[in-house]
Write a structure and sequence with these properties.
The complex is a heterodimer of chains A (about 110) and B (about 110). Chain A has about 110 residues and is mostly beta strands. Chain A contains no helices and 9 strands. The termini of chain B are far apart. The chains are: A mainly beta (about 110), B mainly beta (about 110).
């Protein structure tokens, strides 16, 4: 099994922040957490990654707890085009799990 | 920039036939990966190549073989296709074994009748 666990689905209202959680309680000290999303059946697309500190880029923010056992991906102003399956993975593990299906609603 | 290119994009096989899925990347990446994705499921790792000249099994290697032909190319072969191998196959690459984000191809949709 993958090292990460995520809720199977979430809804979010358009324009609101989407907060997607991920548990990775067995992560090692030097393993990065990466987030990807997959729209329809396209190849997954990289979003963001982090090790210990919070990270932000033009797509999203990543909050990692101090004990590194969980993280949250934040899409600050979700749009309909953000409807997708979101995956978090521990980079050394390379296993994706089932991800979270985010549905952004008008 | 082409990135990761997979061929073919679509293929229909009969049970017992063989075929090879081709993957090439033009980003000078060392590590390459093959995943499969069944309907409504996440991606499962079949095989990977951490660097040129090496290959290793992933979660679901049975029924598949791989060849890292050179640094650019990583092929996946089905010797005797089975209906259970009907899936979408994704190739991915990244800088190194534990370095960098994965770049994915567009996928190859395989149906085995």
């Amino acid at each position: 099994d993958a090292k990460t666990t995520q809720p199977p689905s979430m809804d979010c209202a358009e324009g609101r922040a989407a907060n997607l959680p991920c548990n990775h309680s067995t992560i090692s000290g030097n393993e990065y957490v990466y987030w990807y999303r997959q729209i329809h059946s396209q190849g997954p697309q990289y979003i963001i990654h982090g090790l210990k500190n919070n990270e932000t880029n033009e797509m999203a923010s990543l909050i990692i707890t101090e004990d590194r056992k969980s993280s949250t991906l934040i899409l600050p102003h979700a749009t309909l085009r953000d409807t997708a399956v979101y995956y978090c993975i521990v980079i050394d593990d390379m296993r994706f799990g089932a991800g979270t299906r985010l549905t952004v609603k008008p | 920039n082409a990135g990761v290119t997979q061929t073919p994009k679509f293929q229909v096989l009969k049970t017992g036939q063989s075929m090879t899925l081709q993957c090439a990347q033009d980003m000078n990446h060392n590590s390459m990966y093959w995943y499969r994705q069944d309907p409504g499921m996440g991606l499962r790792l079949i095989y990977y190549s951490a660097s040129e000249g090496t290959t290793d099994k992933g979660e679901v290697p049975n029924g598949y073989n791989v060849s890292r032909l050179n640094k650019r190319e990583f092929s996946l072969r089905l010797e005797s296709a089975a209906p259970s191998q009907t899936s979408v196959y994704f190739c991915a690459s990244r800088t190194g074994p534990n370095t960098g984000e994965l770049f994915f191809g567009e996928g190859s949709r395989l149906t085995v009748l």
